[in-house]
Amino acid sequence: MATSRASAAQIFPGKGLGFLTLGMSLHNVLTRLKAHPQTYPAIDVAYSPTEPLYQPVIVQLPANGLRLRFDGPDQRLRLIEVLDFSRIILTYKNLEVVKGLKPGEPQTSQSGPSFRHVYNRLFGPSYPGEYIPPAAHSPYGTYVLSYPGVAFSFPLQSSAWSEQCDFVALMSSSAASPATSMAIFQGASWPEVRSKMFTQQPQYPRSPALIGKTKESASDEIEEVKIHGAGKIEFIRRGSPPFWITLSETTPQDLVAELGPPDAIYRKNDRRIMIHGAAAGGVTAREMSPSPSRGVDSTDTDHSSSNSITDDSDDEEISPAAAVDPSKLAAECFFNYFHHGFDAFISYPTTPGPAFPGSDLPDPSPPASSSQLTVTKIILHGNVPGSYPFNRHRRSRWTIHLDSTDDSLTSETPYEVISSRLKELWKGSYSNGAEERALQRGMVLNRGWGESPESSVEFLGDWEESTGGKHRSGSAGQEGGQGLGNTELFGFPGLLFEVLKNGAVSCLTIY
């Protein structure tokens, strides 16, 4: 890949590389990369199809010689690796990490910086590094020279290594080759951070735009959403005090005051899924909220401005929200907060879901008739790799608080565990076993007909099994994996879960 000095990436040890900042969300990184297809023509995403929320997600940029590693639960950038120095120009304090190649000199993946250049010119003296013996019968081991926040790996002849050697003299000799890779991480040294890289709290926010910003100039990012039942939802923020949303009471003006204007406003008039509400005629148990067999329209699963159950675009309207005036909204709509990981349904007040049995909260009272639009539903997106709406929202993490001390059900909990716990919690609220089975029956939701997934990344590994075992393949900008994109919907009072075949919760609607 041809590069120019103008496109050189600056190294910031412990912080990032160029625009890539440690702690950035996977959604933010992919969005930035996809916005520059000429610079990043190939984007490969590797993930675990069985444990996508536990195992790291890896983004590879083969044309740029980069590999990015994100933790699974929070999807935040933890490690930046340069694997091919010939495909990217790197600078540190205005010095080139690899001196420019001479005209006609071939570019190879071995064109990394020498130990002498790193040690004497770029980063200066350091403590002795870590020697890793060779695997199998290779004559070369690896010497890792580590500085705070950055490390280099050099091939070293195993026959030359000894614990008593002068490492500077040895690494400056012909026994050592130029560096083959570089890592940028958060920590004092590579050996120290290696075991906690994916679990320690990131120093920088998910969005680099928030670095150095005040609360007045930019809305704080949401770290976690706590669901307390009875329409009470608590939003925990990075640096600001938490704020609460009370369904059918919180107004659009309140949302804008706390979070700023939404990224988009989405209006949808299609109500064909309302037919399933007809099956609910005899339901009386605490006004059991819709399992998929009853009142599915009350959650309106079609909650994203770019995510439609059907392909009838005439039923949809997407509006920019930069100059939104919440006091002048004329009809029901969704406020899409893509960078916060959730959507809010703005509608006329309804009775929220009941309190969790055993909690200290009372059941909500039916609201008085009002023409005031309020927030009646919150949709939290999991951004699960392999799911149909992947990368439309950044990942939203949540916890269901069944009582004041219990926080065991989280966005990473397999749905089988969540379902078992909620079934036991609500066991006494059904009139009979038949009603219980009917209300907890899953309903298949097809997200694959119509538009294909709007993602220009290549998935390495299985496309979610619900798409018929297809693989997401092709270079950036190509479509692949034309499966159905089916998920299942499961309902409990006040909660609706959209679940993938691997048990991961792709979306949670609270109403």
Distance between the termini: 50 Å
Q: Strand order, main sheet: write it out.
A: 10-11-12-13-7-6-5-4-25
Average of pLDDT = 79
Overall structural class, as computed from helix and strand content, comes to: mainly beta
Low-confidence stretches: 1-6, 270-315, 449-484
The 3D shape can be described as elongated
Largest β sheet strand count, sense and barrel closure = 9 strands, mixed
**What count of structural domains?**
2
What's the total number of strands?
28
Query: What does the radius of gyration come to?
Result: 26 Å
Helix content: 10-25%
Topology diagram in text:
Layout: E1 9-12, E2 16-17, E3 20-21, H1 26-34, E4 44-46, E5 57-61, E6 66-70, E7 77-82, E8 90-92, E9 95-96, H2 115-122, E10 130-132, E11 140-147, E12 150-157, H3 167-171, E13 181-184, H4 190-193, E14 222-229, E15 232-237, E16 243-246, H5 252-259, E17 264-268, E18 316-320, E19 333-337, E20 342-347, E21 374-381, E22 398-400, E23 409-410, H6 415-425, H7 433-439, E24 443-446, E25 458-460, E26 486-492, E27 495-499, E28 505-510
Parallel strand pairs: 1-8, 4-25, 14-22
Antiparallel strand pairs: 1-2, 2-3, 4-5, 5-6, 6-7, 7-13, 8-9, 10-11, 11-12, 12-13, 14-15, 15-16, 17-18, 17-19, 19-20, 20-21, 21-28, 22-23, 24-26, 26-27, 27-28
